[in-house]
Design goal:
The protein is α/β, with parallel strands linked by helices. Helix content is 42%, strand content 11%.
Amino acid sequence: MSKLNNGFYRTLIIALNFIAVNVFAQKESYIQSLNTKNHWVDSVYKSLSRRHKVAQLFFIRAHTNKGKMYEDSVARVIKDQQVGGLVFFQGGPGRQANLVNKYQKLAEVPLLISMDGEWGLGMRLDSTISYPYQMTLGAIQDNNLIYKMGQQVAYDFKRLGIQINFGPDMDVNNNPNNPVINYRSFGDNMYNVAKKGIAYFKGMQDAGLLTTAKHFPGHGDTNVDSHLDLPLLPYSRARLDSLEEYPFREAINEGISGVMIAHMNIPALDSTKHLPSTLSRPIVTGILKDSLRFKGLVVSDAMEMKGVTKYFPNGEADLKAFLAGNDIIELSENSDRAIKLIRRALRKNLISPEEFQTKVKKVLAAKYWAGLNSRQNISPVNLNADLNRPAAKELVQQLSDASVTLLKGNSAALKLNPFLKTAIVSIGVDAPTVFQQELAKSFPNCRLFLINKNTPAIEIRNILTWLKQYNQVIVGVHDTRLRPQSKLDYSSDVRLMIADLASRKNTVMSVFANAYTIAGLPGIEKSSALLVCYQMSPELQKSAAKVITGSLKPTGKLPVSVNVFFPTGTGIGLQ
């Protein structure tokens, strides 16, 4: 077949997939499907032994970057235990496609394949697209763009044989020092978080992907990482009802298919000492299922996390999560042990047969809704091209353009003369940046300067003296770390340099880092113009360059409160 024909058929396949997406949007939702009698679900349920029914509630960890021994160990668990699903982590798309095909053949009931993909497949897999972080999306004013992102993410997931995304994150991040949520949240305004989260999950669900709002009842105001210890949420029931739970209530009202429970100790909701919310029946069943009337999949956060195993070791956490009301028990430390403990609890009638049946049938109904009753092998043909299609890349740039936020300045401050002697400075990096390279195209009389995050004081003084020769200075502040934290890891000398540059006339600053980092850069608010771009992606660096050169009007609004100068909602629109 010729290259031309190859390209034609690939385009046709993608077009047909998006037609399928639109058709899917007209079908009933997963939540609606639970009200319909389902012969496939009933027949599969009847065919399973009690042990295999319990096993349907367990989702185990899978990787494609840990070698054949690890892959074979997962295969043995699938074959021996017949678990309900897998949660894939780091690896590559081609390897994952092959493994999913292999693992599905070992399952008597098709596996529900899941992944934490808050910003798409790129959160876990190499050679795939990363969409902007949720804090970046929080700045966008057009929620339809976020809906479109949900559709593109769903296409990626389904192309790789994944049926459920453990996202979006619907925590209200009202603690700048939160070590685990932070940039993963849409921000600190509960209304904005709810609207953005709903747009995102509806895009995914309308395209046929199951979704999960997390981490109920709200992990945004903690200063402890629940992967490492049990966070305490010391607030009143009234505060939790009115603030933390708000986005989850709205998501439930809009038909979200799943909710993930956080590992947090919340005395106002359950006074049991050291009890994580995941293991609390008053929280999981009493509030989420009974008060909020959530009928969809209730998913535990990872049961291997220290926040839950610290006080409930040796499988006790798994059993308590089951009894509390969770439908899916994710990443048990030992699923075989946990299945035995739950079977013993069922023999003792610790929960009703009806409640157990409902749990299992919900998982089976999710499999049916996602099309696993007629499962197809994942085709490796054109996989990389399909997952890196131009339409998705264009959307990433659109989302980036729409998020750039002007915190200070006006048209005059941004109207730089392209012919004047211009210094383009990138701070926190070791090599020229996309930001510099893009700007250099528009400023022919420019010189690029690089400042490492630990550049010695004497060298900084020399550069500052040198920069006095320039008529205008454009500065990029970059966080090169994999995850954009609340504080930059710059030396005090480099921070002082930023303040010095900001105090000079004709200095335009762009921050390619977590918005909270601005609070740790006193003096930066004196810049002639200040842009916040939230993360150091190539697309956002291009977006900032477009704003500075006048080809893009900034429309973003700050989704979190940084300090007294820049509260939530700050964002200057230019005419």
